[in-house]
Fold these 4 entries.
Entry 1:
Amino acid sequence: VANHLNSLKRMTKHQDDLDIDRNLKILCESQNTSQFDLTNFINKDGRQMHSSNESKAFARLMEREGLIRMFGDFCALERFGLEVFNNGGWLKHLSDHNTNENELELKQQEKEDLELQNLKLQNEASEYQKSIRTKETQIRNLTRDNLRLGNWDIRFRWLIAVITFLIGFAIKYVIDK
């Protein structure tokens, strides 16, 4: 049911757009665009809207779009309405507007993708810097340990040399006696 209602709304909107395009042309090509009788609008069947309610409802639709300004049973063409007509009509305006919106959406999506990619690269760079700091700390610790072991090795050799000297001295003293 909901899909059917949405389909009907799209069809009605499309029909409204066709009617706006057709009647904008009629208004712009009329003799008096500043005091156009609303009953001169044409409905979807190509007949004049003789019903005041039908013509006013349609005129309110065009007024909401900014194409005309209503006053009683008459309307006047707005500057925007004339621009739309001169640029190819209501349907072309909608097409151009949709194209611009699609381009903006694509640019926005591309911008978001680039920002996400940038954040990922920044995160990778941060992780890399963190690993470099960790490796540098490990190198410093290993260098310190290596120096400490080297110092112990030197001390141990000196100790062995001193002990060997003392043992040699003691042996010579015992042999000489």
Note: The mean pLDDT is 85.
Entry 2:
Amino acid sequence: MYQLKRRAPTISYRLAAAFTVFLLLTTTLVWQALHYPMVYDDLHLIRSFSTQQIASAFHAAYDPDSFENAGLRPCMVLYNGARYLLFGENVVAHRLFLVTTYALYWTLICWIAAAFKLGWFWSILAGLLSISSKYNVSHYVWLTDGIHIFQGLTFSVALICLLKAIDTRRWWLLALSVAVMLIGLLTREDTLAVVPVVVILGYVYTKQRGDRSLLPLVGYTLLLGALCVAFLIFRATVVPKSPVPSTYLVGMVFHIILTPNLLGLTHFNTTSTILIDGWFAIALLLLFSKLVFRAVLPRSMPVIWLGCTILACLPGLNVDRANLLFFPTTFIALFFASVLEELVHLYPRFRLLAILMLCWGILGGIYMSSVTMQSFHPFSQKAVVWNSDFIYGKYALRSTIPPARSAMIRQQLSLLGINEAADLSTQLPRLVAEAESQHRVTPQAANLLFIPRLVPIEEKPFPHRLTPPLLSILLLLLAAFIYGLPRRTYIVF
């Protein structure tokens, strides 16, 4: 009697399964905010643009209203215009599109992680951990901030093209990878932070395959480097007010410290305290385990993922803002998953505990994300202040907002008694004081203003009183890493 052999899942099956799991999570996360109206710079950036405005974005500042941060972002204008053409004022369609592209992004990251020998099970858990982080809420709730997901897609496609080029020696794939990276740079200039990540991962993959010739990668690196230099020169020429690369080291340190704490560091009740402190302990344990016990845990990829995390925090040199942690949260999640996979490989009995550790981060992240996205509710203090700035405040005379959208926001504000600019200094403070006195911190059944417990981007990286101990932990981790290095160190970075 013949025994049926169990066939290993095909790559197509694994990709489809990963995409389905990620789509289920992203849809679940966004569900409570699915119908939230547009907010803040959604009001003037998600719209149709004239041919002249689109053409101008290729040789001038991307914002036709001229009050956003100056930058050369023509692909951002094209992307926002295309979304408005497809979905118009339908915020549900916009957000379903964003969560679908987010699921696609992490599906591609799983393919990349598999190329570096991380198991599909663990890479999927890494994706769930990263997606559920409170820092990524703005990328699928705040429509304008969804540009980071598109930026992520350009990175992942460019890296896949590079890895395929190394496999097949097809030069046109190298050219395609460079072209896709250019699209990323023309979408947001902080794509520069992942340029070295692409090159490093290409180098590691080349060595992993046992190739002795680095000529294709050297040529690719030189071409990509020349492109980045040309981009910076052209950007400085045509958009002279655009921010230049800075040396705000404290901002980068803030990003590095925030990133492993995927649930954030702001406590607001007993549940959040338990979840945040629990994940903080898990993250610290995994970081120290890998960096100190290098002889027991010798795999190099977790350390490489950690190095990619640090490189992806480079935008912090210009500004320390939590919604800039899209790439860092990707790489740190891969670090955690790869360390746990290595531990399970050595100690199989540890498997259940390892899964529970990641589930703590995932479920805790879902809870923290659900609270964070309440700040985008139309009657949260943050959304009201943001929208008031565009309708009656400092941006009112300069912003181009579609008439139907402007009328809807005016109606929302009118329900709170805000009908003119003068109300921003009289009615709004009264509403805030009333909400504080009544401890309204969640959306109410009636049209009442509430004070959100978590704010996505203006939240300080951590309270100042925590600065010394957290900086001490960072220095201890660095010392542990140096101590854990073998005598003959293979330098990747």
Note: Confidence is low (pLDDT under 50) at residues 484-493.
Entry 3:
Amino acid sequence: MKKTVLALGLAIALCMVTMAGAYAQAAAPAPEAKAPAAAAAKEINVTITGKIEVKTETKDGKEVKTVSVVVADAKGADGKEVASLKGKTLTVVGAKCADVEKVAGKDASIVGKMKEGSTELQAVSCIEKPVETPAAAPAAK
């Protein structure tokens, strides 16, 4: 009789633990529910003008180049200024990174895409800005 009561008590305890675990799992939000909100970061098209910098670092015995642009001016696809990017350093990534690297140390205009709040710029094209020379003084007569 004691063994039957003990077995019945263990069976009830096991059922209660299982039900409590199932209830706790159902009450907790699913991790997938948060992913769409994070993935909803808006991608914007921008035109960045600034100075191109290339840094070479050694990581794990390999030299790694990092191409970046110090933003002097930033405009969205609508032509409006994106003031939040001004003065920031953005890391240039993507297939056109090599084109941007060619104008290192110079001012350039880069058209690309980036996610809001990100510091990575996916370059689409890069054009070196011409050096502005002072206007020549008119010849004296």
Note: Helices lie at 2-27, 31-39, 97-101.
Entry 4:
Amino acid sequence: MKKNNPGFLFPFDFTIFMAIICRDALRRQLKAIREKEKQVTVPYYFYMQDQSKYLENIWSTLNQRRREGETYPLRILILGPSNDGTIEYETRCNIRDKLQALGHGAFFPEELSIQSGAWSDELLAEIVMQAQEAHVIIMIYRTRGTQSERDILMNDMIDNPCFAQKAIIFVEEEMYSKIKESLTGQDWERMRKVSDVQLYNVNDLPDKIVKKAEDITQKLRRKVYVRNLLKGAIT
């Protein structure tokens, strides 16, 4: 009897056997990949959903903060000539009315004070307390009264610059040129490094000065808002 030739059958059987082995191994690999996809893809999908919601909440909060910063009401103390019928006093009134219309708490010291009359220690203490509480101090520098207010509030600006740092002082150009040549000239030059000293021409009264006061305080809204936010004064 003729024997089968194992040399012919073995390569054929081995090829089939290896194909089956490779097929099963490939199936196992594909199954493992699918299991990994189930473990990674599904949580990642929900992770992305959470991230999207998180980012949406952040942008919503930021937009709310921006709106609040742009409309944040400032406490503004407006110093200047008393009711003497001058264009400076009219400008002072217009600044107050405009800033109040924009939502600020803008007032004259005499409107807040229980003290009245000539300068006294009580009146001085009242104005200092008002200046301390104000976010911004606006001054139209002209009369002898405003000179006294400036001297009282600004003279200690080197040791205690808190008032000078939040002061916006409008002074007429011609007057300032004379001030520079006076004994207080150097004092004013030091103050200009700390305070916002705005020079104006008489023809700028009242409208241009009112607009400038509006623009400056509008820029300060967000600055004061952010400062109070960092201090924890705003929730």
Note: The longest helix spans residues 6-70.
